[in-house]
Backbone:
């Protein structure tokens, strides 16, 4: 008994003392202040009653107590019956109606839906949270707490909320060893060293975050599945994780390997039409459901990027999906079959080949052949989470198949949580895109929700990949993507602005300047990132065969992976027209296809995704393509520098730790944006031969290249790809320490010195900067960027502001290598921008 | 070379990332904002020149660079000569005059003094920091930085500052094992396990804090000296510490044991008149000065509280002081001979005995017999750092002897850093007190500074006892005492308000509400503490034979320690009059003595220190003594509760960590103030038999005694002293867990529950509180209070606000003992005050 109390009291104590680290995310329940506090103290009744007695319902009641205690400083009484005083009453519709026969409703709630309603009995006021099921009660409680946190009135409620779609899931690409594929928030909260973690507190906290958004399912291991997940020894681990998430109404799912019957099942085949394989999947499902009766189901990636699949036996994806689906069906389980299937050994020399066609080509012919508990899980675009893609044509093509849209919360191609990119506007662009599947009015959101084709299951899957870091995602501002995914999955009709503002207020409080700045950064951040990494539908111009992070314009070309942009001396873009190209555009319904097919109507934002055009092609704003590429990169890089300035104006208005973390992140991003800007613009200048009309590209009057400095010990090296270093060269030190120096020849004044150096992940080099013999800065290259090389991923900027320079001053950088890191330098820029 | 750079860069990096922990104290150099930042950016020249090349002068230059970088974001150029542009020029008067012949001064600076002066040459503006010595240059730099931090103009300076007295020292009562006698800020920054710490960075940081105040000496070991400090093996340790403090102009001193010639010197005597002893001290001094040529000297506590002294051989204190003084004189060293000498085996039954007489009786006859490098170090009052004492009569009695006043920064009798008590007003009361030593106009400050008797040495010694905690003193607000001591030692004419406000602005920034609240708490805090611990000159009514912390009204009585207050059934106070008492008052000069001697003129604040009066004696405000004792205790306890409320209004305006620490400290203090209030008032009620006119004492309508609750497992115990627990009783648990419960019989409403429990230091008991079956709070008794017993020192209050109570509710406390801590409880109070 007492031990249970002390588990609870752990929560209570934690509430009191925790600093703002981001771990509580948007559920901080920060104490209200002033008139707002007084108002809620008057409005809040003293008692709370949970009419249902499930674990979820009791959790809902505790969450309400916790939230009210945090925000209003009052501990609600947990009563067992309706008291003779005002109260908050939680319950399913059935239970509420028994207690309040006077409560009339004309419209039925959907599963997980809820209503908040004020009922008066004479002088007494009851605040009702009624729901279709226990999960809905929990969601209603979170919504009531949100209202308090956002300062909305709660004394006269009459509100109904139902989810837009039944499937609102997250996937975690966590490996059983505790690493996370494309995870940027630390190690796995679920797994370590082949088993579930001993301490699953963070899983429970994650369940709370998910429940607050209405997310009701979570796949807990990588879609590139380790077959061992289906070993009997792992079942208790999965069950423990399910136990941690269950009170939050989150069902667990697992990703499975299609070869499992053979690799761990002892069969000599995994042919989906083999009866032994059918039986194996059934008996495996039975085994797992005995331990976890409410398992959500399986996720399956087959015949993709090296994963085995039905093609091994000449079977179809429907054969593969259905053999698993039938094993799950008896238990009410779903199978999410990933539509991300393509050939990554395509012949790049064939201009008719097109990876973008793959999902449609593979799945369209199978429409109607999938069992009803199969959901085809389709990435938002036809390629792979690029900075901008059109909606996948497959959404509009399946009429008798359950669909879910797969959105990537973790920022694989959008800065890997080192760049602030708020993805909600991007997702909304796809969700709101009308596929004209049955005439007008069939946006992607309605197709995946199954409301058009009246499919029983479907909805939204977000690849979240949270980790053990306090920030969950490796960047405080990136939390808004998890939040925004959940809000959209519940209601995709919400505006990006509403979501950004709600998130900011819940996460950082009510200061209007803080709200304006943070929401402003978030809402412009996608366009900003696109501007410096891949405008006009070029996709993210990164190292697509490597880390998917730093700039590498040609990484997409001349290989079988098919992310080609086809830039050459004359023009750029992938011709996907029906008339002269790959015919991809023909996969869209006619109304959509005709818009994309014609240069006159194709949106400029997707121009180079759909068409190959000369650099001199004129866009709607009157600029040529090449000049737009130059301009957008300079705009994007300048925008991030402005973010830093905007953020710095919030010092003292945001808690110290998060202020410092975000400031450092934005300043780093500003340096990286400059690397991208210079690399992409120089690459296109060299390739096109057309100079920048504003004469910026290739001309850096404030810059001194490292290779042109006086060097002691440093040697000059060529960088690959050449565009990722200024002038294509850098200097590196293979001695115990080296020096690079030069004399300042500018005017007298206060200056900002920017040192562009390389921070690889195979050592911790040290640098120091002296001016006229005086040490003015020193730093360690100790970040964990995803490269061991000197390239665009390791290129990092150190900003030293407020230096008094005089003509003739020696500027001297000393570097001390460490292990594989050779204290490399690209250049120094001397400007006035931070003064 | 590079390694030196990286030591420096450690500083640079630290400046960027450190959160507000208190470790930077008032030297945070927080970045200025808005117009203020712009103004200084325009006013600050780009260059700084240190004309002198000593370690202190170079340190001064670096400190200026550091401060300007932190506050203004600009890195000054360290030039080697006067440049042809505006500059800040640092140097001794001689050096400055050589560079600026046009600089005229008519008044000489004292040692350590400095001036700030703007000199114009055509369009060029030079900001001069000129000083009598290098130390003064450093002080001038700190003063210039203070001006920037406080927003004062720096473009037209003309200011001279000289110290009030040559001696401005701190003593540290650090033991060689790393513990600190009466230290509340953690372990020693100097010592660990018998030697100087390997890492002396905190010593250097401490030196910086001291230098910023103009403090120029530091005794680094306990006055209750371990003889081993004089062993040859310790000399390198002392030298390392001196090296760390030297760049800050702080000379090291050591405390020595007078028996050393015998205990560690191999002699069979320590008779100060024995030639071998004389020679031993001389040769020991020579040995130490060879390693530390600028050692400040020795501190000596002899014939006091068990320390050996000259009395062993029938010699005088002058004999003792002089034998050491002569050994030091050749090296320019000083000896601080402590005046804190008294008999702690006095017969308490003799009403003529009086410990307060001791310092005068011991030292007055020796006036003129001390060598010129002896300083008699006299505590501010005649007893021992009590919450209020009169100025020691010895200050006015020595005419041919150097004096220093010993003030205690560490709060031995004033709450041990667990209570906020700003001591500057108390110190000022003594420093400004006119001793009438030579007619009017001889306040204590002028006597100790030697300005009256023209003594060569003298001044101010503060017992600081900082430790390794980030807060230095164990309480963020207590830092103001170290700061205030330093400011007063430089200029005792400053007002307490000025010091409190400067400290607050430097330490917490410029928010006017923050300034008002913090300065308000500080300035009233001494009176508040006095009000609940010992008003009217009673002294601190604590456990004076034990921890000097919690309440124990009779601890002073019926023993030989002589802190008697002589309270009995009829009256209270120590009769120190000449007419009928101990004659102590006769030690003052006539003008002072006559004021104290007469009830008509004796200040009420010191009434019971000077006189024994009946409880019904009427004070100047018309109250009787007994009613004043009751009222002041209620006022004091209420004031601390108000501090908590005032502080809570600053949430979000003070950095998180310090906000939380101070909030917790003040809330704890509020609980302790209530313990003191109840203990003292009940003790006097019981002793005097006179009830409180307001009927508060002994009547607690909101209180339920633990001993009257329903107990499961708990047993009732009597507490010693009885007054430190409500009703004299508590309950404790000798089983694995126990329960105490009762039913609430008050009205319906939101209530605050206060649980008074005992937090001893010999275990970590756990408690939980349930109301009507609902867990509403749980906590661990994990503080390190200075007692293993159930008493006033361990009595602690847990405040649980915002609880909805209904008549008949069961209130239930579960306790789980741990080791020696038995989850004891005193009472529960249910009120509305936090609602």
Residues:
């Amino acid at each position: 008994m007492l031990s249970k109390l002390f588990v609870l009291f752990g929560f209570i104590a934690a509430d009191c003392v925790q600093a703002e680290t981001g771990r509580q995310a948007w559920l901080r329940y920060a104490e209200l202040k002033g008139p707002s506090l007084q108002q809620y103290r008057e409005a809040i009744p003293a008692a709370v009653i949970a009419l249902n007695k499930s674990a979820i319902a009791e959790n809902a009641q505790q969450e309400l107590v916790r939230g009210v205690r945090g925000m209003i400083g009052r501990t609600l009484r947990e009563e067992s019956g309706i008291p003779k005083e005002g109260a908050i009453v939680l319950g399913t519709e059935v239970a509420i109606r028994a207690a309040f026969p006077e409560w009339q409703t004309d419209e039925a709630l959907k599963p997980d839906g809820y209503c908040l309603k004020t009922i008066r009995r004479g002088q007494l006021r009851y605040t009702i949270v009624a729901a279709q099921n226990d999960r809905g009660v929990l969601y209603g409680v979170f919504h009531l707490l949100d209202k308090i946190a956002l300062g909305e009135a709660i004394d006269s409620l009459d509100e109904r909320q139902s989810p837009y779609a039944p499937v609102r899931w997250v996937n975690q690409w966590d490996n059983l060893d505790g690493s996370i594929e494309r995870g940027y928030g630390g190690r796995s909260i679920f797994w370590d060293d082949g088993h579930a973690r001993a301490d699953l507190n963070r899983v429970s906290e994650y369940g709370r975050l998910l429940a607050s958004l209405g997310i009701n399912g979570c796949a807990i291991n990588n879609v590139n599945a380790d077959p061992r997940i289906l070993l009997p020894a792992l079942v208790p681990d999965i069950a423990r994780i399910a136990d941690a998430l269950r009170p939050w109404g989150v069902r667990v799912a697992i990703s499975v390997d299609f070869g499992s019957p053979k690799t761990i099942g002892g069969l000599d085949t995994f042919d989906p039409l083999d009866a032994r394989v059918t039986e194996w999947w059934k008996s495996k499902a039975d085994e797992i459901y005995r331990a976890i009766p409410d398992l959500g189901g399986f996720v399956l990636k087959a015949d993709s990027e090296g994963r085995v699949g039905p093609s091994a036996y000449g079977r179809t994806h429907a054969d593969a999906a259905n053999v698993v689906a039938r094993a799950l069906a008896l238990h009410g389980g779903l199978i999410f079959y990933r539509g991300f299937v393509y050939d990554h050994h395509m012949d790049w020399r064939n201009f008719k080949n097109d990876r973008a066609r793959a999902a449609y080509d593979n799945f369209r012919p199978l429409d109607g052949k999938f069992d009803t508990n199969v959901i085809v899980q389709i990435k938002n675009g036809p390629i792979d989470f690029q900075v901008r893609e059109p909606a996948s044509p497959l959404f509009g093509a399946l009429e008798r198949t359950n669909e879910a849209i797969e959105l990537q919360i973790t920022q694989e191609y959008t800065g890997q949580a080192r760049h602030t990119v708020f993805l909600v506007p991007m997702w909304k662009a796809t969700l709101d895109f009308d596929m004209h599947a049955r005439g007008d009015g069939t946006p992607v959101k309605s197709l995946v929700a199954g409301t058009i084709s009246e499919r029983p299951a479907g909805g939204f899957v977000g690849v979240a990949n949270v980790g053990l870091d306090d920030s969950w995602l490796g960047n405080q501002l990136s939390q808004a993507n998890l939040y925004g995914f959940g809000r959209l999955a519940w209601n995709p009709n919400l505006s990006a602005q509403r979501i950004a503002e709600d998130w900011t207020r819940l996460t950082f409080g009510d200061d209007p300047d803080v709200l304006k700045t943070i929401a402003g950064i978030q809402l412009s951040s996608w366009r900003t990132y696109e501007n410096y990494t891949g405008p006009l539908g070029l996709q993210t111009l990164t190292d697509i065969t490597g880390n998917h992070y730093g700039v590498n314009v040609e990484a997409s070309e001349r290989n079988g992976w098919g992310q080609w942009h086809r830039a050459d001396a004359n023009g750029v873009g992938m011709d996907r027209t029906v008339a002269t190209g790959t015919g991809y555009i023909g996969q869209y319904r006619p109304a959509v296809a005709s818009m994309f097919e014609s240069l006159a109507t194709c949106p400029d934002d997707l121009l180079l995704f759909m068409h190959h055009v000369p650099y001199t092609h004129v866009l709607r704003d009157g600029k040529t393509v090449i000049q737009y590429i130059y301009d957008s990169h300079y705009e994007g890089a300048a925008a991030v520098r402005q973010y830093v300035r905007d953020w710095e104006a919030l010092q003292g208005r945001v808690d110290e730790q998060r202020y410092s973390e975000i400031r450092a992140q934005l300043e780093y991003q500003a340096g990286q944006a400059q690397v991208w800007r210079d690399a992409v613009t120089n690459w296109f200048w060299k390739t096109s031969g057309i100079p920048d009309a504003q004469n910026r590209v290739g001309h850096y009057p404030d810059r001194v290249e490292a290779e042109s400095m006086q060097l002691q010990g440093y040697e000059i090296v060529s960088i690959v790809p050449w565009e990722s270093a200024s002038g294509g060269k850098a200097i590196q030190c293979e001695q115990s320490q080296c020096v690079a120096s030069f004399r300042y020849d500018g005017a007298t004044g206060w200056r900002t010195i920017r040192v562009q150096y390389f921070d690889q992940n195979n050592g911790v080099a040290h640098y120091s900067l002296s001016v006229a013999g005086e040490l003015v800065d020193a730093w360690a290259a100790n970040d964990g960027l995803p490269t061991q090389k000197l390239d665009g991923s390791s290129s990092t900027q150190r900003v030293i502001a407020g230096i008094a320079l005089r003509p003739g001053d020696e500027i001297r950088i000393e570097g001390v290598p460490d292990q594989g890191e050779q204290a490399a330098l690209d250049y120094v820029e001397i400007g006035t921008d931070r003064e």
About this structure: The radius of gyration of chain A is 28 Å. Chain A touches chain B through 55 residues (CB under 8 Å). Residues 36 and 101 of chain A are 33 Å apart (CA to CA).
